Structures are given as structure tokens and as C-alpha cells.
Amino acid sequence: MNKFFLGLVLFLGYTHLPAQSIKMGEISETEWAMTEVPYESGAPAVILASSGDSRFFGGMLETSYFYRLKILTEAGKEYADVRIRFYRGSSGTENISGIKAQLYHAVDGQYVETKIGKEHIHMVDLGEGYSEARISFPDAQVGSILEYSYKKGDKNLTFLDGWSFQRSIPTIFSKYQINMVPQFEYKMIGQGQHFFTKSKRVANNGLYSWELRDLHSLKEEPYMKNYRDYQERVEFQLSRYQSGGGEFVDVLNTWEKLGDELIEGYTTKGYYKTSALERELFSLDMSKGTQKEKAARAYYYIRDNFINEGEDWIYPNQSLNQLLKSKKGTPGELILAYMGVLRSQGITCDPVLIGSKGYGRSDLILFPFLNQFDEILLLAELDGQQQFIDLSDSQAPFGYVDIDKQVKGGFLVQKGKSQLIDIPIKHQSNNLVISTAYLDKETGELIIKNTLRSHHYQGLQVMHAVERYKKSEKPLEEMFSSDGLLMEVRNAKVENLLEENNYVNSSFDYVMKGANEAETLVFNPLKVSSFSKNPFTQEYRVFPVDFDYPFSEIYTANIQVPEGYEVDDFPTNENITISGGLVGFNYSVENLGEVLKVTAKLDIRSSLIPVKNYGDLKYFMETVASKLSAPVILKKVAKP
In the chain, which end has fewer C-beta atoms inside a 10 angstrom radius, N or C? Predict the structure, then answer.
């Protein structure tokens, strides 16, 4: 990971190559002829070319932007309305100027150029200091090519926006260059697999540039909602600058100094003081029990007596006194208040800032870059053991950390010794399913009784689903139904034992009416599995597969062969894995005469499956789905 976040000094090793320039109106025959993206069929539109050119000028960074898009389908017409958001603030921190736009489309075999007038270019105030430049291409059609350019001035020279090579639609060509000056030294923050392995890079007398080609669109895929964490991009943070006297002044703090500044800010808001919290907890007996028992008692008090609302963030909006008065707070404010409770009991604990999944970082930046963090955990020492604590989920028991906060590492904030740390969160999350199938003689129904025990985060998922069904006033039976299920769901019940035993018990029946009248009984004993249908059907994968955490699913089905029936067919045994043993699956059937026993186990041993393994995973999951959805067939024995 370290090699991906290097200072500009390393750019001197780049190859010196001539830069490719892009000009408005210079559209190639290949671009005119394109009707779909070769490597991403079905894309509604495509960025044919994009470029950014940044230069320091007049006390600000001025960047010239250019985009050339082509509309490929009717759905792609939405990209004919362009919106450019920027932060004007109260002092014109950012400004947009020099907007130019033109449209090209074919008329009787000839390409016609249309200038976009000022009546189709507007500035809109969004409030809170934000504005938006809007460009409309009113006559855009399928096959039209749109071009627009503009300049953005930015007075904030501490953090430079840099460039995002990857967008919501495919990009054929993207280039960014920045002309550095000796008075400013920056750290580069790059991200993306292609950025580090496939980009064409140039370094020449302070001019640095990158080119990338044939990028897929940036969009959610099955088992990857945090795709922004893998976006191809580059940005910069100021390291030091040259003062008027000629000496260099450091801008980047050390981790220790950065942590002390955060503590000072939290203290100003009252979160490192305990007197107000001790009064708040006057009715709660904190005198007995181990440190872990006290911490759990305080956790449930805060969780159940305060309303958790607002955006999770590392900076509190209100003071501790305001929080105690309103009984409402953001997850960050509640965890800081909880920290004060533990400290009042002599328990050692400190905040840990993290960049949550989906915030835009797949790995930590190893120099003191505060903007990479957006949420707070608490690290406490309870009875000699370290414990990470979170308060963002109102249903989660003590000790559970939200899945989006289970990242590789974070920033431990301690007076005088703040530092980056690993965040190892271990748990045994799995599903255990036991099913019994039999033919009810009285009703003539085939009944499959299912008991599902969901441990840890699998159980928490079940309880969130239960909450959604209750809010929508839907019967719980619908939660255990699925597409293609030809059986009725009955007697659904869920017992929440997460706080006591770290699992949730669910029970429900699958019922086939009139089964005794059929000559053959065809049914799937393992339909309860969410993997009885392969979630990976696309031909290619842009991002890794993210299962959130390793887990297992274990199934046992005992099928009682009714009197007068015999086993006619059942699936064959299977035992498969993929390269590296990242996942595994075992399926077996044992015919014991009066009972047919079906067992299966799916092991997801690694939470993150690399793109290079996608083909193997797709085939693996197809095999899993075929087995978990395969029917057992019983037939009546012919009477002699």
C-alpha cells in the first residue's frame, strides 16, 4: 500500500513523452462512427475525450476543463443537461468562467455544428455557499456529440481537487496535467488500479501529466456498493510553501499535532469533560460489575435514551450540554458523549477516526491528511482487552461495529501520541439452517419446517429486515418468500437473541397443498438460501466483489420419504473451490431409505474477491446456485 501514496519527488522518474492536446471541433472519424462502447455494450453515452489543465495564477489555481461526449441511446439524452457544482462561499473561494459549448449532429449525411448560446447557460445559487453552472443542449439526439469547456479558479491551495478520470459513463480518453511552481510543494494522492499500472505519465520541468484510456463507467455492481473507493483519480495536499523571506514553512502537521488539535476542538465542545455526564447518569448504577459490564450498561443507556439522527461526521455540531438537553445527536456526537461516560468510570478510551466504506478511499493515506476521515469509533480498554465500540446502529448490541466502519485502519486520537492503527474486528457470522420435510397425512400437504439461526452480523441483517417489514406493515411471511417459490409460507416467527447470545432464531414453514394427490413430489429442500440464484451474471467485472466480511452458510435437510413413495432423483454430490481457496462449497446427499439427508456448506473465506478471480467466482456461484436450487423428486410406488 505504501508505494501508492508518494510525494512529487518521485515523478522525476516518469518517462518524458509528448503531451496529446485536445481541441474543440477536432472530432475524428472513429468518434463520428461510434454507435456503442466496444468494452461496455449498452452504455447510454460515452465520454470520448476529457482533459484538465491546472496552473497557479494570481494567488489561485486555475484549471481549464474540456469534455466531449456522445449520446448513444435515448436514455443517454439525460447527459445533455450538464451541471457543474462549485463552492463560491462568502469570498468567492471557487468561481466558474469562460463557459463554451457546442453541439454536433448529422443532417442529410453532413455534420452540423451548433453553438450553444447564453440563454442555455445559467448560474444557480444552491444555498450554503454552493452554486451550480448549468449547460443545456436542447437539440441533442441519439448520435449527437456534445462539447463544452470552462475554467475554474480556486483560492484553496491547501487541498487541490486534482482530477477524476472515471465517471458515471465510460471514458475513452482522459488526461490531466498540472504545472507546479517552486514556491509550493505538494503530496500526491493517487487512487485506482489503472492509475498506478496503466497510466501514461509525464514529468518535465514542473509539468506533470497522466493519461488513461478505455475506462469503464463508475457504477454499483452486485456485492460492491462502495465503488467510489476504487475510482481512478489523483489529487494533492500542500506539504510546505515558501514564505516572503525565502524560507519554507511546513503545512502538514504530524499525526501527533493533528490529534492534539482535534482533542482541543472536542474539549471546547465539552466532550472531554465528565461532570455533566455524571449528572445525566445519576439514576444509572455504575458502581458494580466488570469494566465491560459497566461499558455495556452505559452503551444501552445512551443508545436507548437518545435519538440518533443526522449525518455521521468527525466534527460535532452541538456541544455536550446541548446534546444532553436535546437528547438528539449524530452518531459522532453520541460516541464522544459515551467516551465521557467511560472516562468518568476510570476506563481508558479514545476516539478513532476512520474513512468509512464508500467515502472514497480503499486504503489509508499514510501522511497526516485529515480529509480522508468521516466517522468516529471508540477504542476502549475493558478488563485488559481492547474493544472497538460504535453507536451508529440503534439495533446493534454492545460491541457491534457498523459494517461500513469495518475498515483496515484508522487514526487513534490520543494526547501527544496520536497515530494510525489497524482495526481488527473479528466475529463468527454465519447462517445455520435445519429443515425437515414430510407429508402430513391429515391435510395431504407437503410441509418443510425450517429453522434458521443467524449469528452476529447475519443476525443483525435479519433484524433490520424485520424492522423494514414492520414499518411497511407487510406480513413476516413475505420476508421468507422468494422468486419462483411455488410453496406457501406459513408460521413465520423471529426471536432476537443478539444481546444475550449473539444470534437470531427464525422459523417458518414451506407448504405444498394437495401434495398427496400428485404422482410425483418435486421440491427444493434448500430454497431458503439467498445463493440459490447466482448474483453474478454480468460477463465482466469492474470492481472487486465485496462480501463485507467472511461468513459461512450451513444447511441440513432431512426429508422423510412418505409411505408408498420412493426416491426417484436427487442432485449429485459436489465439492468445489476456486484458485487461492477464497471460497468453498460442499454438497452431499445420503439416501438412508426412509430418510433422504441433504447437507451443504458455503464458505466465504475472504471478504474481498479481486477482479482477476471474477471469472472463477462466477462459475463457482453458478454451481452453488444449481445445487441449492436443485429439486428432490419422490414418486409413488406402483401398486402390485
Answer: C
- Rounded CA separation 620/614 (Å): 10
Helix H segments across 90-241? 193-197
The mean pLDDT value for 590-600 works out to 95
Which residue ranges make up each domain of the chain? 29-242, 255-422, 430-636
pLDDT in the model for residue 107: 82
Which class does domain 29-242 fall in?
mainly beta
Distances (CA, A) of 139 to 68, 296, 392, 419: 16, 63, 48, 56
Max CA pair span of the chain: 109
For 392, which DSSP code?
S
CATH topology of domain 430-636: Jelly Rolls (2.60.120)
Encode pLDDT of 71-92 as tens digits.
Answer: 999 999 999 999 999 999 999 9
Give yes or no for residue 396 having a pLDDT over 60: yes
Mean pLDDT, the chain, as a whole number?
92
Compute how many other C-beta atoms are within 10 angstroms of the C-beta atom of residue 602: 24
Classify domain 255-422 at the CATH class level. Answer: alpha beta
How does DSSP classify residue 461? H
Which residues are CB-neighbours of 10 under 8 A, at least 6 positions away? none
Q: Distances from the Cα of 289 to the Cαs of 293, 296, 362, 364, 500, in angstroms?
A: 6, 10, 40, 38, 17
Q: For 97-226, where are the alpha helices, taking DSSP H only?
A: 193-197
